[in-house]
Amino acid sequence: MIGKAVVSLVIFLVTVFITYSMTTGRGGSGSTHFSFFSLPIPKPNHSPPLPLPCRSGSPLRVFMYDLPKRFNVGMLPPSNATNNLPEWPHHPRLQQQHSVEYWMMASLLYENNVDDAQEAVRVLNPEAADVFFVPFFSSLSFNTYGNNMTDPDTEFDRQLQVDILEILRKSKYWQRTSGRDHVIPMHHPNAFRFLREEVNASILIVADFARFPRSMASLQKDVVAPYKHVVESFMDDDSSNPYKLRTTLLFFRGRTVRKSEGKVRRKLEKLLQGYEDVHFEASYATGEGINASTQGMRSSKFCLHPAGDTPSSNRLFDAIVSHCVPVIISDHIELPFESELDYTKFSLFFSINDALVPGYMVEHLRKIPESEWLKMWARLKEITHHFEYQFPPKKDDAVNMLWRQVRNKVPGERLVVNRNRRLTIPDWW
């Protein structure tokens, strides 16, 4: 009897170990390399099995493609490397505001990304992955090679897109879902502009949807990411009377010549002239200009956020980390993390039509009681950490919030894939 019990115990322990290895994609001693107990590779001509849905209470399992450096960090100038990851340079042409791709990659390279603070963990066994991350810096590629749109260097940007698509199409993991479980950052409105329709089934990380047709991108499958703020975060905003210290009612500093909905900026510039407590200044994002914007936002109660070339702009996130209540004038804006954050608790919204009614917006702001403004100011201080991109990543910061949003897209992706496998005719309804 004792011998049988011992044998049963050994069989049970081996079964538990095999199940753990298959689920996490890790071997012994915390390794994430392939192990003897990895899931078997499917036979040809059969759809490979999808991993189980994301487990409740555990991090998202992410397999990151090992791409040549020319697709990502090779576009960055040499610098002090952290985990083979060069520091993001402070260079205006590289536009750190669209550097989401960099921070997502960095989070997966973080050596301690298995701690409880991380929403995503890198696995080296693709069979164990919930999603697949494609570390192609498409925004940086546009800013580096295609920023002038007609420059001959644009060909480099296009060729990188051609090459990455070739790599993906050869991957059996891309083939099994047509890329639906792949995560591809496209934060700049012109990122991946030549071939983005070829990856439209994937989970895209975007700033907004202005330059995407509805057939390509939507809130149902994609994730809206915050810009990387340009001004420094207001770390010591601990005044006992911030309402009186912020003497400017409404502040705006930035470009006024914009496209699409952004044309409202020129109209607002004329409309808001003559108010002593309103600062509206046309400027460019130079080092001196950024310093002026930092001081202006920190000394203002409300910060104006009109649409730019697209419905979103970095100004919103500069205002948030400055604890200056955003006044959003953009009829088609989508906001990051809105499934978790109620922006009406720390922002104000005006339609373009209402904002252009002479005197309406300024008078509305003046009527807001000090007590109500203080509540919004306090809420801004509570949620600012959600908009911080940083390395190493911290609990509930911007990149971890993004991975949590990606995790929320996985059940919908599974539904589409599994349903399509059993349909005998295309979507019949």
| Low confidence ranges | 9-45
Distance between the termini: 61 Å
Number of strands: 13
Radius of gyration: 24 Å
Oligomer: single chain
User: What would the average pLDDT be, to the nearest integer?
Assistant: 85
- For the largest beta sheet, what order do the strands appear in spatially? 4-1-5-6-7-8
The outline comes out as globular
Helical run tally: 13
The H/E string reads HEEEHEEHHHEEEHEHEHEHEEHHHH
Short synopsis of the structure:
The protein is α/β, with parallel strands linked by helices. The protein has 13 helices and 13 strands. Helix content is 34%, strand content 12%.
Mind explaining what this structure looks like?
- With 429 residues, this protein is an alpha/beta fold.
- It has 2 domains: 60-228 and 395-418, no CATH class; 242-387, 3-Layer(aba) Sandwich (Rossmann fold).
- The protein is built from 13 helices and 13 strands.
- The protein has a 6-stranded parallel beta sheet with strand order 4-1-5-6-7-8, with helices on one face. Strands 10-9-11-12-13 form a 5-stranded parallel beta sheet, sandwiched between helices.
- The longest helix is centred in the C-terminal third of the chain and has 25 residues, at 398-422.
